[in-house]
Amino acid sequence: MKQLLTYLRLLKQPVGLLLNFSGATMKDGIRRVVNDYHSK
Q1: Is there a contact between 35 and 8 (Cβ–Cβ < 8 Å)?
Q2: What pTM, to 2 d.p., does this model score?
Q3: In which region does residue 12 sit, left (phi positive, over 0), alpha (psi from -120 to 50) or beta (all else)?
Q4: Phi/psi at 21 (nearest 5 deg)?
């Protein structure tokens, strides 16, 4: 989670996806992460 947030801040991206392949289904392993970046 921290690594994804760092990448989002450095690349100035508003949203990213964190994928966990060890869940029972792929749907359970997808997490949407929103960066706190505000463009001017």
Answers
A1: yes
A2: 0.72
A3: left
A4: -85, 0
CA angle 14, 5, 37 (to 5 degrees): 35
Which residues, 6+ apart, have CB-to-CB distance to 2 below 8 Å?
none
How are the residues of the chain apportioned to helix, strand and coil, as percentages rounded to the nearest 5? 35, 25, 40
pLDDT in tens, 15-35: 999 999 998 899 999 999 999
Please report, for the chain, the start and end positions of each structural domain, with discontinuous segments joined by +.
Answer: 2-34
Which residue intervals of 1-40 are DSSP H helices?
Answer: 2-11
